[in-house]
Design brief:
By secondary structure, the chain is mainly beta. It contains two helices and 14 strands, in the order ββββαβββββββαβββ.
Length: 208
């Protein structure tokens, strides 16, 4: 299963002032006498926000519902979405509530989409390779300069990326600053090499 991420055809950021903040990261014990004894519960704070994505049309709503029910298993799975404050890719969950997401009628063709989102503290290792201006996660990362390799969200080796085959949107970043884009390219094992090709800094491949 591919790394779940926020669909590219939906609004990529919230449209109104976001409300929320961190959950209490302390564990508190009340002794028989004196003030509570408190300690840090976790190494990172979970933050919960009311997320309003504004009006979506019927096609976008169908995309969201298919993604929600299938890709993230009715909200049970975490996914990648850009943080509304710093625009960096982060792990999120949709908070369990009733209803789990809200739709408000705007017109006969559009509805307002909102839910409560939980931003998890972990930073994904592939954050620097997520597609610009979206949350699309690369299926293959071959960063030869920094010796970072991964397939489908799992860090690996050059041999792992060289074994990949399938149809992908492939972006090749050259040392001279040029970038080539090959959409829906058929990739055979070995097409993304295990070792750095001459003049190439990195290769990213995304599911189309």
């Amino acid at each position: 299963m591919s790394v779940p991420f926020w669909p590219t055809s939906l609004p990529q950021s919230v449209t109104t002032t976001i409300a929320g903040g961190p959950q209490d990261g302390r564990v508190s014990f009340q002794p028989d006498f004196g003030p509570p004894i408190e300690r840090k519960r976790t190494s990172g704070l979970v933050k919960v926000y009311d997320m309003d994505f504004g009006a979506v049309d019927r096609t976008q709503l169908a995309t969201f519902e298919t993604w929600f029910e299938g890709t993230v298993a009715n909200g049970a799975l975490k996914f990648i979405l850009r943080d509304p404050f710093d625009n960096s890719p982060k792990w999120w969950r949709i908070v369990s509530s009733d209803p789990v997401y809200q739709l408000a009628g705007v017109s006969d063709t559009h509805a307002n989409l909102a839910f409560k989102g939980m931003r998890l503290p972990q930073v994904p290792w592939f954050a620097n390779y997520v597609e610009a201006n979206t949350s699309r996660v690369p299926h293959v990362v071959a960063d030869y300069v920094n010796s970072i390799f991964g397939v489908n969200g799992v860090k690996g080796t050059g041999s792992d990326v060289a074994a990949v085959s399938g149809v992908f949107d492939v972006y090749t970043y050259y040392t001279n600053g040029n970038v080539t884009e090959e959409l829906s390219k058929t990739v055979n094992a070995g097409d993304i090499p295990a070792t750095q090709p001459s003049g190439v800094d990195k290769i990213l491949a995304f599911d189309p």
